[in-house]
Write a structure and sequence with these properties.
18 strands, about 20% strand, nine-stranded mixed sheet, four-stranded antiparallel sheet, 15 helices, alpha+beta
């Protein structure tokens, strides 16, 4: 029996109540990084556990060394078809500073009507991630209210420290791996291609960061007395950094491209049809020409290709006026965005060896690690991708795009490595949602149609 039409009608009829519930959650000041809001974070966790339990997903607040997790499970039913899914979201939010730039109280959510008649929900956390996670909760609510149960077995985990680095997450996943291991993970913390085109994020780049400190003389030197004879660490560092790329934009480190695979032509053809232009992307920031590998499009460069960027360089005198010194030390911060199966630690070792091999004998170098994470990517051939994509296309009336993301969501890698689960990244955020900034907003259509989308996706996965 096909229940989806009844579920969608119930979502539409209940949208005002769904919005009220979202507002209740948005009013909770769950700022995870500030100890002053510790009780507010617990309040948000308790609110979610209570709401989930009331609709039939038995949930509890689980203490950690930091802010608590919320874990819940629907009543297990071995007869249900489709995968057992684990939905992840986070209830914590970023600080609101600078408060004076907010047009309204960040924790007093409001619906604002724009000049074109569309509506937005303005509040801290509206898009990142309370509005997003509640799209799934409200879809589950409608399914249970309409049919008495969910169409497949569902578990949830809501975190309270995502915005402050997830310090308790690894230990929690390790301690609860058996309980949390499911067939497929679902995350709603990403975005659409545009306000009319839904998307599934199938790749997110990883990261490797390193600081390089090169020391020559044991103190700063007078450039008149020592210039020409003494090694200048800024010269040395500049030469080393310049050698990290060739004239075509490729990174020169040995074995850097190990594990980098080509994106299938069917996917790149889809990207070519998205209407992305280099001018539209770079123009607003005052640029015209892509600076990366010159045989790749700008969209490929930011989604599916690795990078090595120099994020900062310093040394010598940089104050007002002029000081004629040869500095003792010069430093740089370097980061790599990684794709495919690139190994961050292998690349770190390659970078360090390259620097050491190009260092004069009377100079020394120190390295300071700044973290690393591998890239995450979804198997294009996973049937769940097609089922979810078809469901999104049916809801939005536009073919759902398979897109990449330049940043990363580390828990996707944790789900793969610790719980052996692939993840579907489906979100309804937009580029102009101003997440982490004053006047954060979430389109009302993203909230309403996001709920409908998850209802359809659960139906599609159950029928698979």
């Amino acid at each position: 029996m096909n229940h989806i039409e009844g579920v969608l009608e119930r979502i539409d009829a209940d949208i005002d109540n769904s919005t009220d519930r979202l507002f209740d959650l948005l009013k909770i000041k769950s700022i995870s990084t500030d100890p002053a809001f510790k009780e507010e974070c617990r309040k948000a966790a308790e609110w979610l556990a209570r709401e989930l339990s009331e609709i039939g997903i038995k949930s509890s607040v689980r203490d950690t060394t930091g802010h608590p997790m919320v874990v819940g499970h629907s009543e297990a039913d071995a007869s249900k078809a489709g995968p057992h899914v684990l939905f992840y979201g986070h209830y914590d939010v970023q600080p609101v500073d600078p408060l004076e730039l907010w047009e309204t109280d960040p924790f007093e959510p409001k619906i604002v009507t724009k000049p074109d008649g569309s509506k937005i929900i303005v509040a801290r956390g509206s898009a990142d991630d309370k509005g997003q996670l509640l799209t799934f909760v409200e879809a589950a609510r409608a399914w249970i209210a309409e049919t008495g149960s969910l169409p497949l077995n569902v578990s949830v985990i809501f975190e309270g420290e995502e915005e402050s680095g997830s310090p308790s997450l690894d230990a929690f996943l390790d301690a609860n791996s058996k309980e949390l291991s499911c067939d497929l993970a679902l995350i709603c913390d990403t975005g659409m291609w545009n306000e009319e085109t839904p998307a599934i994020t199938i790749m997110m780049r990883g990261l490797m960061g390193e600081q390089i400190d090169i020391t020559a003389s044991d103190r700063d030197l007078h450039s008149g007395h020592f210039g020409g004879a003494a090694a200048n660490p800024i010269h040395i560092l500049s030469s080393i950094l310049a050698g990290l790329h060739d004239k075509t934009g490729k990174v020169t480190l040995p074995d850097f491209y190990d594990g980098v695979s080509e994106v299938p032509e069917t996917v790149t053809a889809m990207w070519d049809g998205l209407g992305f232009t280099t001018e539209g992307f770079l123009g607003p920031v005052g640029l015209d020409v892509p600076a990366g590998e010159n045989d790749r499009t700008a969209l490929q460069q930011i989604w599916s290709r690795p990078t090595l960027e120099i994020n900062g360089v310093w040394g010598g005198y940089t104050g007002a006026g002029f000081k004629t010194v040869i500095p003792s030390k010069a430093s740089a911060k370097v980061s790599c965005r990684l794709v495919g199966d690139q190994d961050p630690e292998k690349i770190r070792s390659s970078l360090r060896k390259y620097v050491e091999d190009n260092l004069p004998a009377d100079c020394s170098v120190e390295f300071h690690e700044h973290g690393s994470s591998a890239s995450t990517h979804v198997d294009y051939t996973n049937p769940a991708v097609d089922h979810a994509r078809n469901a999104l296309t049916e809801e939005w009336g536009k073919e759902a795009a398979l897109i990449g993301a330049g940043g990363s969501i580390p828990i996707v890698g944790d789900f793969k490595n610790k719980l052996s689960m692939d993840t579907l990244l489906i979100g309804f955020g937009l580029e102009d949602d101003q997440i982490h900034s004053p006047n954060e907003k979430y389109n009302f259509s993203s909230f309403h149609k996001g709920i409908r989308s998850w209802a359809r996706i659960l139906d599609a996965l159950a029928k698979a």
